[in-house]
Amino acid sequence: MAGLLHDIGKIGIDESLLNKRGKLTDAEWADMMRHPEIGYHILRSVNEFAPIAKYVLHHHERIDGNGYPRQLKDEEIPLQSKIIAIADAYDAMTSHRPYREDLSLSEVVAEFKKNSGSQFDAEILDVFIDQLLKQRVWKRIDRAGSR
């Protein structure tokens, strides 16, 4: 459920900012960085969602401590938040955005590997990449079998 609701805090961010085509200014970026805390407060206010609020709060933390909003490091970041961070990044990289095209699978894997151990938990990321590549192989096998 936390994965589905991880960006709920974006309802508190101006839509023009969410859809901006160019690079964000420092002030705009500071505003955008508020969305995990907004989401946290929304989820904390609903009894059924209160237990997952902390996972939403920390989904932009980085293993190296350079994330936001609390600059948590490695083991301080909940496992669920580490998983959401990878899924969120994958979605961002493979979805067309107003400000850029989606990336190919090889570009996504290269970007993940570049940030393994700094932005993303290396062990979780290895499992994720392995599953992505297996899925790609199975899709090719399915296509070949249906010819």
From TrEMBL:
User: Which organism does this sequence originate in?
Assistant: bioreactor metagenome
Which InterPro entries does the UniProt entry name for this protein? HD/PDEase_dom, HD_GYP_dom
MF annotations from Gene Ontology: hydrolase activity
Name of the protein in question: Cyclic di-GMP phosphodiesterase response regulator RpfG
Q: Highest lineage ranks of the organism?
A: unclassified sequences, metagenomes, ecological metagenomes
Question: EC number(s)?
Answer: 3.1.4.-
Q: Where is the signal peptide?
A: none
> Which keywords fit this entry according to its UniProt record?
Hydrolase
Top-level EC class: hydrolase
What sequence ranges are listed for the domain HD-GYP? 1-144
